Amino acid sequence: MVGGLSCMRPTSNYVGKYVRLGRLMPDGRSVIFAFDHGVEHGPGDFTEESIDPRSILGKVVEGGVDAVLLLHGIAKMTYDVWGNKAALILKVTGKTMLRPEEHRYLQSVFGSVEDAISMGAEAVAATVYWGSQYEDLMLRNWFVVREAAERYGMPCLQLAYPRNPQMKNIYDVEIVRYGARAASESGADMIKTYYTGSRETFAEVVRAAAGVPVLMSGGPKTRDVREFLAQVENVMSAGGRGVVVGRNVFQHKNPGGVIRAVRGIVHDGKSLEEVLRYVE
């Protein structure tokens, strides 16, 4: 190449991001357990057992999750449960349902990239409600987080959620793929977004992301675990790179078994029928 560019050595932050992404996605795919629901939805989301973060995190780590996505407080009080066993993704934004309804489309600052570094995290995560009346504010925060993470060689997971009071169907493929494309163009290294209802429509979301890994948001608890695992199977066959799941794991009577079943689909390419034995 002209000027010897072919001989250029990678920068330190490029190496750091490459190494960390490799730990998060060891085969290019990832199973991530999200446990930020105490803030995002309130303790009413929890079962009697899963309200204790140490109990539920112990089970999902034993089940073989690749990473846990936590806010600072829970990460700090459970470090001995996940530390050196699963990667940490520190979520640095959040909001509560205690706010007036008209302000629930805004995520506030809940931490920093420096917090993530000091805790040994492999990545940071931040939410953007694409289409929200507060989109501009969340984008300002996103770019502060992304630029800091870039300096330190940390990947950024964007929770790309199209959402506003006038949006009738947030799972519509045209809306979801718009959000995925916006996440890609705003510099996300990984994208978490809604399942759109079928393999065919989710494949459109994956294409819109233009090569940035897309992971399915687990969403509300399904009617049964078979329905949830069928969604995971569809996502992977559509070109998705994994899942970021919460309620369909911790609200199940066998959370560790659900993680093993999800791993079987995501990492081992097993069918729904093959992995059901883990949760029966």
Give structural notes.
- The structure is a single chain.
- This protein has 280 residues and is of the alpha/beta class.
- It has a single domain, classed as Alpha-Beta Barrel (TIM Barrel), CATH 3.20.20.70.
- 42% of the residues lie in helices and 15% in strands.
- It is built from 13 helices and ten strands.
- The strands form two sheets. Strands 1-2-3-6-7-8-9-10 form an eight-stranded parallel barrel, surrounded by six helices. Strands 4-5 form a two-stranded antiparallel sheet.
- It is globular.
Which labels suit this protein?
two-stranded antiparallel ribbon; alpha/beta; globular; 13 helices; 280 residues; TIM Barrel
Strands of the largest sheet, in order across it?
A: 1-2-3-6-7-8-9-10
Strand content: 5-15%
Shape category: globular
Helix vs. strand class? alpha/beta
Main beta sheet: 8 strands, parallel, barrel
Helix count, DSSP H or I runs of 4 or more residues: 13
Task: Give the C-level CATH assignment.
Answer: Alpha Beta
